[in-house]
Write a structure and sequence with these properties.
74 residues, mainly alpha, 5 helices, 51% helix, globular
Length: 74
């Protein structure tokens, strides 16, 4: 699924989804790749990180934690 498709799904939110359960509605970080396998491996790597390390990654590129959703729209 593309980043755009993921963001668009927030309009048709599944009530049992992670987003609904934890009230997550901001896109504060993303990485671009054209290789699905690379994306999957990177996601697995990030999931293994602790919260502090993930926060540091977001802070390194988006220190104000602005919603980046508008920046990915066509």
């Amino acid at each position: 699924m593309t980043l755009y498709a993921v963001c668009m799904s927030r309009e048709n939110l599944n009530p049992n989804s992670f987003t609904a359960k934890y009230d997550v509605h901001k896109l504060v970080y993303y990485e671009h790749t054209t290789d699905a396998q690379v994306a999957i491996e990177r996601e697995k790597q990030l999931k293994g990180w602790n919260r502090a390390r993930k926060n540091a990654l977001v802070n390194s590129v988006n220190p104000s934690w602005q919603d980046l959703y508008e920046s990915i729209l066509p």
